[in-house]
């Protein structure tokens, strides 16, 4: 293959937008901005009324569905399904454990902890659901309620969505977008109008949620800067400037890619967060905080079942609006954000087992959240009752500035306030950065090689949306819209759990069949040619030549015969590409309605030679001798592939047909339908 062709294959596409997703999304988003900007009072009235109606009639539904998610995930983790890997069976995690944990934390709730760490426990203490305000019992209930809202239930919502997307994205080789999670329900129809509509809905919801967060974040940053510096930060121009700076930094980070940008920012965030947490634990009421932490965990775990299913049906809370204004709003908020956060944690979790994913997603952020809420929540309540004599509680209504008011009662108040400001800004940059990445993935149907300008474009859209809403005062209306939209997403997520369970059952059924690779059936023919290949150790050029001269002709011959037999088959050739997740791969795909597509693929894999083989290696040939490149098979069900470099075309065709027969035999309940399909009725979808 000539060099110009290689350069053309390596060049990223100029644009990867999916018009059926992007165009309606931008139209809907523009209409919402016009409504909130031109008719803010009408928008607030309409959205607030709809929000109240949903809470009044469907609080029980939110309660049951969100309570199902942690049970479902725990059952998966401790069952045999926990061993399934999110990707091929031989896949390895892309990020190390520390980086993965940091990105989980930063993408999911980082800025929320800064905003509500002091505010929520203190407000529950002053207005508890069942206890007398301002008493030790109220403090206990305040932290139990806060733990409940920020604990396992919250992360189980993200975990379900992330696991569904990672499983179908990395095991089924579907695009890493929300539509792929509906594959068990829609099969190939996810590539049609329904799938476009689902992704457009996810795109609008993600932009709305992120823009709302950026708007409220600008308010908190402005409040902190006013307290620390005395500047007049209450002006609209100053707040708009904050958003412009944050989005600009996010654009620079997004341009550097996920591994360099989001990973590094997340690790910095985690380090600064531990410093801030350690400061509060050391200079606050240390012994009391650790005592409270132990008791908080005990109260949370001992009341977890009753809290999970509590709806105040027999006896309303002291404040009738408490349940809907806190618990139900939190459940709806986590669900509305689940496409964004779930997609992001799915993207960074390729190669981990289902058990590793669930344990990590449920326990690591939850444990940190509980410690954080204890340090800041119990610390604020203790300072208010023992030091401030109620002065801190008097400012609880202004949540934007409450964190910085809390720091005023600790040593080095100005220094630690500056640290908090930097941390809040970094959290915003990380949220906007990862948000631009996820939005671009949705808009381009998960294309692995989107150009940089697209991520910059979406970062700009997030900033413009936040600014427009801040100027129009429409943040609360858009927040209400986001919460209303969570209702159908909750129903979809419940059904996705069923589809995920069925998919995993199919995976284990596949794994239970022991099918040896085709190379084990070699009969000794052409042994001289095989010996020559063994001695030579193939290079990447040899493997590409093998793909072009042997593998692709075999696949095309099988596909042509399939078409003559009335079965639709497609051959995808990406052997010339050197970048992207599918670089260098070729595959034969047979789409089957209502079943996972049959895929027989081959890709070049670089393998390091064992040390005992490397004797007397010179510097000149070290790179060549230390590694070999092998053509390895891969399949739609994630089975570990095998080396086929010694097969001839006829043997390769036999191996393809053998795997196709295996595919049909493992779908025994559908086999009669598949074998009796009439010509012309084959699915026209493509993987």
Features:
Amino acid/polyamine transporter I; disordered C terminus; 26 helices; 687 residues; disordered N terminus; mainly alpha; 4-stranded antiparallel sheet; 67% helix; elongated; 2 domains
Task: Summarize the helices and strands and which ones pair or pack.
Blueprint: H1 3-10, H2 19-38, H3 40-77, H4 97-108, H5 110-116, H6 119-126, H7 136-150, H8 152-170, H9 183-186, H10 193-229, H11 236-255, H12 258-283, H13 286-302, H14 304-308, H15 322-347, H16 354-386, H17 391-394, H18 399-407, H19 413-443, H20 452-472, H21 475-511, H22 527-536, H23 540-564, E1 570-573, E2 586-590, E3 598-608, H24 622-626, E4 627-635, H25 649-665, H26 671-675
Antiparallel strand pairs: 1-2, 2-3, 3-4
Helix pairs in contact: 2-3, 2-10, 2-20, 3-8, 3-15, 3-16, 3-21, 4-12, 6-7, 6-16, 7-13, 7-16, 8-15, 8-16, 8-21, 10-11, 10-15, 10-18, 10-19, 10-20, 10-21, 11-12, 11-19, 11-20, 12-19, 13-16, 15-21, 19-20, 23-25
């Amino acid at each position: 293959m000539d060099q110009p062709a290689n350069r053309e294959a390596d060049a990223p596409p100029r644009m990867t937008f999916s018009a059926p997703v992007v165009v309606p999304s931008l139209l809907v988003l523009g209409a919402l901005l016009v409504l909130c900007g031109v008719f803010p009072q009408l928008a607030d009235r309409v959205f607030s009324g709809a929000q109240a109606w949903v809470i009044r009639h469907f609080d029980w539904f939110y309660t049951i569905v969100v309570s199902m998610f942690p049970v479902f995930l725990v059952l998966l983790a401790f069952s045999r399904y926990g061993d399934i890997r999110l990707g091929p069976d031989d896949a390895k995690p892309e990020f190390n454990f520390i980086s993965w944990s940091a990105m989980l934390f930063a993408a999911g709730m980082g800025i929320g902890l800064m905003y509500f760490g002091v505010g929520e426990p203190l407000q529950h203490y002053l207005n508890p659901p069942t206890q007398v305000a301002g008493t030790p019992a109220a403090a206990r209930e305040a932290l139990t309620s806060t733990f409940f809202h920020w604990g396992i239930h919250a992360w189980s919502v993200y975990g379900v969505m992330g696991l569904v997307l990672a499983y179908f994205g990395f095991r089924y080789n579907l695009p890493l977008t929300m539509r792929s999670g509906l594959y068990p329900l829609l099969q190939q129809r996810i590539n049609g109008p329904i799938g476009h509509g689902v992704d457009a809905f996810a795109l609008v919801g993600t932009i709305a949620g992120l823009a709302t967060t950026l708007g409220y974040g600008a308010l908190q940053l402005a409040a902190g800067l006013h307290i620390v510096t005395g500047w007049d930060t209450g002006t609209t121009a100053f707040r708009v400037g904050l958003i412009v700076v944050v989005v600009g930094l996010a654009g620079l980070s997004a341009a550097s890619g996920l591994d360099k940008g989001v990973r590094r920012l997340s690790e910095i965030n985690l380090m600064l967060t531990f410093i801030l947490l350690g400061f509060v634990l050391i200079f606050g009421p240390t012994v009391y905080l650790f005592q409270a932490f132990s008791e908080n965990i005990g109260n949370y775990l001992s009341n977890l079942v009753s809290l999970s299913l509590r709806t105040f049906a027999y006896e309303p809370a002291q404040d009738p609006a408490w349940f809907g204004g806190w618990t139900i709003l939190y459940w709806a908020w986590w669900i509305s954000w689940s496409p964004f956060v779930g997609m992001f944690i799915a993207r960074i979790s390729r190669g981990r087992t289902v058990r590793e994913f669930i344990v990590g997603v449920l326990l690591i952020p939850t444990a940190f959240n509980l410690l954080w809420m204890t340090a800041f929540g119990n610390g604020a309540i203790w300072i208010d009752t023992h030091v401030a004599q109620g002065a801190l509680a008097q400012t609880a209504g202004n949540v934007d500035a409450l964190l910085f008011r809390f720091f005023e009662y600790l040593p080095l108040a100005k220094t630690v306030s500056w640290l908090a400001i930097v941390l809040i800004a970094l959290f915003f940059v990380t949220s906007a950065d990862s948000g631009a990445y996820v939005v671009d993935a949705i808009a381009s149907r998960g294309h692995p090689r989107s150009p940089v300008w697209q991520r910059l474009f979406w970062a700009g859209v997030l900033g413009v949306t936040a600014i427009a809403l801040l100027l129009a005062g429409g943040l609360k209306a858009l927040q209400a819209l986001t919460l209303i939209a969570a209702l159908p997403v909750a129903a979809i997520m419940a059904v996705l759990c069923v589809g995920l369970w069925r998919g995993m059952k199919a995976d284990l059924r596949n794994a239970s069949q022991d099918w040896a690779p085709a190379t084990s059936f070699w009969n000794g023919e052409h042994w001289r040619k095989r010996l020559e290949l063994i001695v030579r150790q193939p290079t990447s050029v040899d493997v590409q030549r093998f793909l072009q001269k042997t593998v692709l002709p075999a696949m095309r011959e099988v596909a042509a015969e399939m078409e003559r037999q009335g079965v639709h088959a497609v051959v995808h050739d990406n052997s010339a590409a050197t970048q992207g997740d599918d670089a260098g791969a070729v595959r034969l795909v047979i789409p089957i309605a209502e079943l996972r597509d049959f895929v027989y693929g081959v890709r070049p894999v670089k393998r390091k030679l064992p040390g005992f083989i490397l004797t007397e290696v010179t510097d000149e040939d070290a790179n060549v001798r230390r590694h070999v490149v092998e053509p390895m098979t891969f399949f739609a069900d994630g089975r570990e592939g095998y080396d086929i470099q010694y097969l001839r075309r006829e043997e390769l065709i036999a191996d393809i047909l053998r795997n196709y027969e295996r595919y049909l035999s493992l779908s025994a309940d559908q086999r009669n339908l598949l074998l009796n399909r009439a010509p012309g009725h084959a699915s026209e979808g493509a993987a």
